[in-house]
Amino acid sequence: MNVDALPLPDLQVGLRVLDLVGIFAFSLSGALLGVRKRFDLFGVVVLGCVSAVGGGSIRDTLTGNVPPIYLRDETYLWVAIAGAVLGFLVGPRLERFDRTLSVFDTMGLALFAVSGALGGIGLGYGPLGVVFVGAISGVGGGIIRDLLAHEVPQVLYRRDQLYATAAGAGALVVYALHGKLPNLAVQLIGAALVVALRWLSRRGVVKLPVRRLPSDS
């Protein structure tokens, strides 16, 4: 597979669409957490925007695409603000915050993992580099969001809800299938794998091992 031979127009369009949808989903996720924490409108918008652009900022820095794209194209920030405001408005009407938060969080995770993987492939990264960039793209914003909301980042302890592992697996699939299938199909398969792993882990079918100390028993 020649990872350097990318159809750049298709790649750029695909990355932009994935970014915008992922930003909106992550912004809603962050906003809903802010509503649950009883943040005011400003706090909810800040948390939503940080959730939305945090992972992409890390990805852009790692791939040399600086300054981050949201500073060069304000469409990304407007989409993030729109998602956060929507989350603020509809959040109080949602009875099951955890489930709703998980849905949007999973959507953002899947889309950012795929877009990060495509960015790494475009720069000729190997499989480990692509997996790392894809995973950090997906989990970066969520880590910042959780820290600002005084939550332990899910990526560190939720073995029953695969997070970074799911993002890395999706990125690896994108790397493995790129050049063998149409770009859109590769993106959809990678994102679908992330969603599937998250769904299976939430139901206890797939989980990571935890090392327990004798004193824990």
UniProtKB/TrEMBL annotation:
Belongs to the UPF0126 family. InterPro entries: Gly_transporter (IPR005115). Residues 17-90, 103-178 form the Glycine transporter domain. Keywords: Cell membrane, Membrane, Transmembrane, Transmembrane helix. The lineage of its organism: Bacteria, Thermotogati, Deinococcota, Deinococci, Deinococcales. It is a multi-pass membrane protein. GO terms for cellular component: plasma membrane. This is Uncharacterized protein family UPF0126. It comes from the Bacteria. Pfam families: Gly_transporter. It comes from Deinococcus maricopensis (strain DSM 21211 / LMG 22137 / NRRL B-23946 / LB-34). The chain crosses the membrane at residues 13-34, 41-59, 75-91, 103-123, 129-148, 160-178, 184-201. It is found in: Cell membrane.
